[in-house]
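Feature request disguised as a bug report, sorry. It would help if multi-protein outputs had a clear separator. Right now it looks like this:
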Amino acid sequence: MTATQAATATGSKSWIAALLLCFFVGALGIHRFYVGKVGTGILMLITFGGLGIWTLIDFIMIAIGKFSDKQGLALAR
């Protein structure tokens, strides 16, 4: 796989679903469970999204398209 193919590879998880999950239940880390990042999802659940800071960072990262799934693939738009 070349660098160009890696940059355009997208996973099967929806960008808009992750964004909406982060917006509505982001403090519980549900968007991280959705993309397969169970470990950090549990940490977000325990810390209430890093008291909101971690949730805000994730929301921004998803919105600008820099958030990836467990395999490191970009979310499908």
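(second protein starts here, but nothing in the output says so)
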Amino acid sequence: MYYLLTYDVVPEYLEKREQFRESHIELALAAVSRGELRLGGALTEPSLGAALLFEGDSPKVAEDFVTKDPYVLNGLVKRWTINEWSIVLGAGVPAKEIDFGN
């Protein structure tokens, strides 16, 4: 199952994140190495936030990331959400049968 974690960030997030960036990236790389984090990055022009795609048995994989993320812990993230994402195709995900109503 896939879970999309989205962050809404504070104004001037790009400037404020610099002191926490290395720790954030280390946390993300550890999640990648465990096979939990599949994609992640900032929404740009202007910086609106970030989106991270997790894979796991429950939303706990994303929740655990949030509880340790220095961006969240240091107030750079105003609000975050986790939603189950039913991926139908693309990005190496095996295509599911699609009912076209025929």
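Even a blank line would do. Unrelated, but nice: The longest strand covers residues 77-85.
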